[in-house]
Amino acid sequence: MNKISIIGAGMTGATTAHWLAERELADIVLVDVVEGMPQGKALDMTEAMPIIGKDVNILGANDYAATKGSDIIIITAGLPRKPGMSRDDLLSANAEIVGTAATETLKHSPDAIYIILTNPLDTMAYLAMKKMGLPRNRVIGQAGILDSARMRAFVAMETGVSVENIDCYVLGGHGDEMVPLTRHSNVAGVPLKDYVSPSKLDAIVERTRKGGGEIVGLLKTGSAFYAPSAACAQMAEAILKNKNLIVPCAAHMEGEYGLTDMFFGVPVMLGRNGIEKIIEYSLDDGEKAMFDKSAEAVKETHEALKKLVQL
Ligand code: APR
Fold first, then answer.
1. What DSSP designation does 109 have?
2. What is the 80 CA–ligand 1 centroid distance (Å)?
3. Residue 85 has what pLDDT?
4. Helix, coil or strand: residue 270
5. Pick from 193, 203, 181, 201: which is nearest to 289 by CA?
6. Is the C-beta atom of 186 inside 6 A of ligand 1?
7. Is 10's C-beta closer than 6 angstroms to any atom of ligand 1?
């Protein structure tokens, strides 16, 4: 059996474990700083396995030793932004948590592939890769699958067509400047622009960009976790089954799309080595302008991190 360890057993981490267990993809370890909580969630999930008929070992722990020999490490540990906390405060707090989780787990699983979820996502993935000194194929940020799934869901709501017929690609940074590529999106092969009116399409793009905030506004405490964790499980499955699945993820740019030394959401091929390949779309002038604006926003957060943390 493969092994997946999830650092941070909060809403996203525990729900990722749930999706993974349903796939019977790997044994699972949940690690959190809160004593008893990962053990309790792991035991509760273990007791669900006879009901859904899956043979998966699920273990909860407060120490990284339990993650030994993992094929994949998923990092969701982090703090939410609290009142009075500046963005930089949050950045340095989460950088400490993610940096430690990455370097400590690597000692126990030197061959693991890392999936990073903690926000600010692109910058936390950058930090983890730099701290661990790994090649870029082994550190992947989750965001593009989520943003694209949100857009697909909104198109399905608008058209009444099955989500399986809808392909959307949202690239760029995981923030308000993300880049929903309408030209590359389609409903059963029909370009989205020909299927949905321009005003409806604009509304879908806008709602996609603000998708995370819409959920925060409704939940009032906490942020989205079902769709982010489902995206994570899909990434893990593509890697462990060596599917060569092309999906948008945050990857370290080494010249692609004219970008270097930063993480950015682009289509990647996921297989047993993690990122097997980065796919480069040809962009028109309007798309290029959106890409550049989004890249600037991500670079700003990377620069803020570099002022706070020695990399
Ligand atoms: N080691 C392990 N776990 C930690 C650590 C640490 N050093 N520090 C905090 N945690 C745990 C918390 O105890 C908590 O259980 O991380 C968990 C985070 O869970 P939630 O607060 O429920 O947050 P969640 O909604 O899961 O989001 C986690 O993913 O999508 C992003 O923006 C989101 O950055 C956030 C992250």
1. -
2. 7
3. 76
4. strand
5. 181
6. no
7. yes
